Amino acid sequence: MPVLSWAALGGRCRKCRTPISPQYPIVELVTAILFLLVVWLTPAGPLVFSRLLLVCILITLFGIDLEHQILPNPITLPGIVAGLLFSLIGPPGLRDALLGALLVGSLAVFGLEQLDNTFRSSEQIEDLIGLPTLGLVPAITGVSKRYGSPQDYVLDNPNSPFGESVRSLRTAMLLTSMGAPPKTVLLTSSIPSEGKTSMAMCLARVHARSGRRTLIIDCDVRRPRLHELAGVANQSGLTDVLLQHRELNEVVLLDERSGAYFVTAGAPVPDPAALLASERMRRLLKEVGSRFDLVIIDSPPVLSVSDARVLSQMTDKTVFLVHWGSTRRHDVMMGVKQLIEAGADVAGLVLSRVNVRKHARYGYRDSGYYYDDKYTKYYNQG
After folding, report:
1. Residue finishing a domain among 90, 115, 140
2. H/E segment holding residue 321
3. For 136-163, how does the pLDDT look when each residue is reduced to its tens digit (9 = 90+)?
4. Are residues 191 and 232 located together in one domain of the fold?
């Protein structure tokens, strides 16, 4: 928790050397204004106001954050020493104003941090859930949106931070099994709109580009979306094969841009859970697992329906997506708990749609992955 910070322009993470700025700049700005206001109202306030303003600015250029081990820049050290000495030997009224302002600001920041009930770092996931974080995938915002959807962007900009994060996630996912890599992987989340389908498409395209036979199956029969991303009609697909209306070869389509194959959800059915839990589905996954190097299953959210829990019992690994700074921790923990109780082999979690600017501003140890200069230069090579 920041104890002394306003602009935090002089702080850098000890581990990755990433510049740190405050998590709640408004609160800390109000704290500084409160301190100066109290100083001005003291009898000797106008006489020393300019000196205190300079000292306050020097102090607040540095943020002391024990949790993230922030290092000061040498230029801010005189300001820190001057501020601490002044708080110890300065006039009693001014000293009390300084300490009171710092106390109010610290309590306000601590209270806001406690109200944040989402996941914003891999450390939080590993500490609270006890499972590894397979990767952090940044959101595509701003100028990047001009390049289209994530599944197109990952092909058009393979050396971008987004493209590299998808490749890193693919590598981490394949290394979760001892010996041979998993053949069937289920992608799911606790609630809708966490980026499962687009992430599944990105992973499939990246894996296919590496020369591997890759298949993605849309098992979200209730709310299918894979056909929209692929730009095809959802006329026949998985449900038609399970109902024996079509053969598997008739519904397997080719993604010409990447060489990956995909199967859409197919026609709606009255009881998707029963169909997905059938022996035909189990045999289908076994068949495609023998024909492809990797099969990615796009499933519904865990807390919405039971489909994901049923499918997780038939796949080698399960990857759980979490929307950065959005999904409540309770929902994530409940979703993972239900999967584990169902017998799923949960490989790990993925933080999706990470706001890299805010992530770096908060000072988490894994923020250097995107913002450190050496990583940025590496991405831009070639």
Report:
1. 115
2. strand 317-323
3. 999 887 545 566 788 999 998 888 889 9
4. yes
